[in-house]
Amino acid sequence: MSFSQRFRALLWTLPFWPAAWAAVFYRVFDDDEFQHAHMAWQIWNGNIPYLDFFEHHLPLYHYLIAPLFIFGSHAWMIFALRGLSLAMLIVTLWLCGRLAVRLGASRDAAIAAVALCLFAPVFTFKALEVRPGALGVMLFVIALNMIFEAEEKPGTKRMLLAGFIAGAMTLASQKFGLCAVGCVAAAAILYGVRPAIWVALGGALSAAMFVLTMMEQGAWDGCWMYVMEMNLHWKHRFSPAGYLTELFLSSGMLLALGAIGVLRRYWDPAWNSESARRQWALLTLLLCQGLSVLVAPEPYRQLYMPLFPLLTIGAAWAFDGLGACLTDARTRRAALIALTVLAALPGSRRTIDEFSTPNAPDLARMRLIERLSPAGSPVFDGRGLMFYRPHVGFYGCMHAGIQAMLDPTEQSANVIGALRRRKLPPVILDYRVEQMPPEIPAFIAEHYLALPEDPQVRMPGFTLDRARLSGRRGGKFNVEFAGSYLVRWDGDSLVIDGEAVENGKVLQLNAGEHRIQARGFVENLVFTRAGG
After folding, report:
1. DSSP 8-state secondary structure symbol assigned to residue 1
2. Burial class of residue 245 (count of CB atoms within 10 Å of its CB; 0-12, 13-18, 19+)
3. Do 261 and 321 contact (CB within 8 A), yes or no?
4. Bridge-partner residues for 529, per DSSP?
5. Average pLDDT of 356-383?
6. Helical axes 346-355 vs 16-25, angle rounded to 10°
7. Sheet strands (E) in 113-169
8. Given CB 3.0 to 4.6 Å as the disulfide criterion, which of 149, 446, 475, 482 pairs with 468?
9. In terms of pTM, does the model score above 0.85?
10. Which of 294, 324, 490, 374 is nearest to 73 (CA)?
11. Higher per-residue confidence, 83 vs 372
12. Beta bridge partners of 518
């Protein structure tokens, strides 16, 4: 690529860079990001998925990003992980453009199609999050490059490696499983049965290596139960209509151009038999991706990610076909720019909505928890906000789909028992905790108090009615867990265990019974755990 071509490519993507910076550092966090970051943190700290903690995702992505925690367990690691997703997105888009050119599109058409994909909010925002889809879609495009760019008689090693990468794509996210099947079918359409068999064997090899690794770690039974059986019998379901509508409204032109490009042979007489095989291979991949959306019980936005590289190739073909009627290169380029800008406009509203909610509230809550409890101490919540700290109990990051699969009695016993064993660590009473079996929120309400700084953050504590303080000898109260407690009240002075207590100060209390007496009028007496 010449300097002028590189410069044009940079100009095409120039608006992307400030948007990408804002998406990494400013945009609100998706709850899934904490779950995936926490899984990687667990692995980095020597815990084994499915054995030491619950997960229903395949773990390749988490094993690959876990070494980033060598830089420390801090809140800012979420931005480092998002930055890694940005790097994978750049590689993905570059490989999409490269493949489009290799499959017959002009460079200008390929750049325009990549720019159109880049400004598809359903794809780009999911690709910039901390989630396996970022790795999975990159591996998908790598596998496509290896399959589509093979010679007329592809080598065995190349097809085997392409299948191995397609298998690794599935190990990054089981949502991409049918795309791996599509890779095998594409190889069969392009080159025949034998190369397709080698692609399938490559995928089987990566799966076998994963199974043997899990068996060696003693985690295969848990993996089969939580990844295979649980996902195959998923109870929580919703229709794909909602996100399909969003996809059409925000990226309708990309969908239309992708379809036009894939069906180009029906209206372009210059489309030869070799191009037709490529078209059928691409169409098969699109059908496999569409089938994955239809069979998934919860077709969230991230499930559509593999669709966009395929549409990008089709759009590049369509751009060239539409531009063929324009003989002047400058006019053709101007038409490409105008069409791309117009096609990207519908997604602008969705992009603005994505930036309307910042991530500052979550970061503030993280800092509050850090002030309240020592580094490395556990926290209980449903979102996994404190992804760089131990979670309480076997189950963590409990969204509605997972909770529908668990036995509520077992979950309640596991969580409440773990909270007691951890001596009541801090709790974030988020919406997911409130959706847990009622015994868990009831236990929290009985043993925890909300903080004035953030009502969702709960620290262990209790209140005492002023009636218990009356009388000459006062009254008694019981402390279940020893520790430092912040004591606050309204009114006159207070004596605990024979010593005067200063209002708003931290007091060390042993477990067991204590005597308390008011000297004057005292009300709103609150004991809140200070520290972990």
Report:
1. -
2. exposed
3. yes
4. 485
5. 90
6. 30
7. none
8. 475
9. yes
10. 374
11. 83
12. 494
Using an 8 Å Cβ cutoff, are 246 and 122 in contact? yes
Cα angle: 238, vertex 240, 246; to 5 degrees: 125
* Rounded-to-integer distance, Cα 323 and Cα 331, Å: 9
CB neighbourhood size of 75 (10 A) = 17
CA proximity to 309, closest of 179, 159, 195: 179
What's the gap between Cα 44 and its chain centre?
18
User: Are 108 and 129 spatial neighbours (Cβ–Cβ below 8 Å)?
Assistant: no
**Taking a C-beta distance cutoff of 8 angstroms, is the pair 425, 379 a contact?**
yes
CB 43 within 8 A of CB 67: no
Whole-number Å distance between alpha carbons of 420 and 443: 10
**Which of the four pLDDT bands, split at 50, 70 and 90, describes residue 326?**
low
**Smallest Cα–Cα separation from 520: which of 487, 498, 497, 493?**
493
What does 46-84 look like in DSSP terms, one character per residue?
Answer: T--BTTTB---S-SHHHHHHGGGGGG-S-TTHHHHHHHH
Q: Are 44 and 65 in contact (CB under 8 A)?
A: no
Mean pLDDT of all residues in the chain? 87
- Residue length of the chain: 532
Q: Residue 35: which of 532, 398, 341 has the closest Cα?
A: 398
Pairing of strands 483-496, 505-509: antiparallel
| pLDDT top residue among 320 and 152 | 320
CA 127, CA 221: separation in Å to the nearest integer? Answer: 31
pLDDT tens for each residue of 328-362:
667 667 777 777 777 777 777 777 777 778 899 99
Single-letter amino acid, residue 332: R
CB 57, CB 132: distance < 8 Å: yes
Q: What is the residue type of 169?
A: M
144 contacts 309 by C-beta, under 8 angstroms: yes
Beta-carbon contacts of residue 64 (< 8 Å; ≥ 6 apart): 135
CA 249 to CA 490: how far, in whole Å? 57
What was the pLDDT predicted at 271?
Answer: 60
DSSP 233-263: T------THHHHHHHHHHHHHHHHHHHHHHT
- CA torsion sign for 14, 16, 22, 25 is negative
pLDDT reported for residue 451: 87
447 φ, ψ (degrees, to nearest 5): -110, -5
**Cβ-contact 31, 145 below 8 angstroms:** no
Whether 199 and 184 have beta carbons less than 8 Å apart is answered as yes
Taking the CA atoms of 439, 443, 445 and 451 in sequence, report the sign of the dihedral they define. negative
Beta-bridged to residue 461, according to DSSP, are: 528
Furthest-apart CA pair in the chain: how many Å? 103
Dist. CA 103–CA 171, nearest whole Å: 28
User: Distances from the Cα of 327 to the Cαs of 76, 261, 285, 330, 515, in angstroms?
Assistant: 52, 20, 33, 9, 94
Cα 206 to chain centroid distance, Å, stands at 23
Rounded Cα–Cα distance for residues 224 and 227 (Å): 6
